[in-house]
Write a structure and sequence with these properties.
Chain lengths: 111, 115
């Protein structure tokens, strides 16, 4: 079983749609969770951290379910510029900054 | 304030040659991480270094790969006798401190192509 699993997509959605990505992780000891964005295999960029209480940043909402070891990202009113690969990331064994990345979910927002 | 700088951006090597990838962390950062991204795969942790010390190299292949972060100068990821399977994007990241919520800043990566 992969440490972090994501549906690879692609998700093709029209502009303005709401889209949701899911992610599961295997290490129950993980303490920190993130969503990163990667464009065309450029460097990954932090989109947002994910907290147990759920958190929102503009059109983006992240949720964490520790019991199910499940993380989600919701994007509302999607824009063309949201087209990218979204990486689910958890801190790895031993904590610290040893991050474990999912393989990513590709999003294509179309006119 | 320059971000994490990696060079070269693209590196082409023939099988059996050596590849040297450089990473200069953000100013003031003393923690450096190397990740590798193979085609169609996610980023995989390779090694974590602080100045002059390797802290965690659990993701490094046992042979041909080495990393250093000297007191002066950039961090170097060295791959000896490269093979086609080493072709990948290699990303470096740095952080100011270590901790579960400490933000990592990534460089633009080095794309290594082995002919």
């Amino acid at each position: 079983r992969k440490e972090v699993e994501q549906d690879p997509g692609p998700f093709n959605v029209p502009e303005g749609a709401t889209v949701a990505f899911n992610c599961t992780y295997s290490n129950s000891a993980s303490q920190s969770f993130f969503w990163y964005r990667q464009d065309c295999r450029k460097e990954p960029k932090l989109l947002m951290s994910v907290y147990s209480s759920g958190n929102e940043d503009g059109r983006f909402t992240a949720q964490l379910n520790r019991a199910s070891q499940y993380i989600s990202l919701l994007i509302r009113d999607s824009k063309l510029s949201d087209s990218a690969t979204y990486l689910c990331v958890v801190n790895g064994e031993g904590g610290g900054n040893k991050l474990t990345f999912g393989t990513g979910t590709q999003l294509k927002v179309e006119l | 304030n320059a971000g994490v700088m990696q060079n070269p951006r693209h590196l082409v090597r023939r099988r059996g040659q050596e590849a040297r990838l450089r990473c200069s962390p953000m100013k003031g950062h003393s923690h450096v991480y190397w990740y590798r991204q193979l085609p169609e795969e996610g980023l995989k942790f390779m090694v974590y270094l602080q100045k002059e010390n390797i802290i965690d190299e659990s993701g490094m292949p046992k042979e041909r790969f080495s990393a250093e972060f000297p007191k002066e100068g950039p961090s170097i990821l060295r791959i000896q006798q490269v093979v086609r399977g080493d072709s990948a994007a290699y990303f470096c990241a740095s952080s100011l401190m270590t901790g579960e919520n400490e933000k990592l800043f990534f460089g633009s990566g080095t794309q290594l192509s082995v002919l």
